[in-house]
Amino acid sequence: MAIARAKIVLYYDVISPYSYMGFKLFNRYRQHWTGVDISFKPMLLGGVMNIVKNQPLADFPAKKSHMIADLDRTSAMSGVPFNFPKEFPVNTVLPMRVLTALQMHEASDMYEQCIEKEAYFVHDRNISKPDVIHATLAPLFSSFSSTADAASAKVKSYLDLAVHLDIKQRFKEYTDEAVAKGIFGAPTFIINKAGDDNEYLFFGSDRFENIAVFLDQPYPGLRSLATSSGASVSISDKNARL
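Above: the chain's sequence. Below: its structure in token form.
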């Protein structure tokens, strides 16, 4: 008989800076979490928030200023690179549909590497633009393709797939599913304990200690991870945004 395993499903949208930070940190912690199955589901955060009548943080100047300062501090403590983009928010329907297509047709490690790209929240490149998506993903596909032209063609094929009905439908299903599960923001983690069919919702990129305790897994902490990676742990508001 197979041994029951805990499960974590991360719902995300690349427009969310906390999804970006959460994904980066999650990838560190999950290396220490044995007996846990991990998966990811793209959703349209704006669609979810519109349905549940949630308000974006960026709509409130004081909350937006705090959000940026908070993320800057988390970046300094954790060593995760972060730079708030000049143009925020942008429409992420296209990149999220591309990621949906990648999830359907590529191996999980390739898909996760695509999520992890730093174009928007480090290099300030507008990921709503097809040319930016292409320039961001082509180098990654180059390591799996025989030529640069083959890598470029592969990325173009996914940009083309993003407008296909089956991709649109799958992305909509994920978004509707998120709403049905009570999700109201990103990142959100839907968790099952081993042998437990009940689903437990954890929201935010600052809930990893809670998740670790809930699943009886180790939690190294922000400072420990930053120090082990050689990153600075100096806590400074790099852009004096407070």
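The first helix runs from residue 17 to 29.
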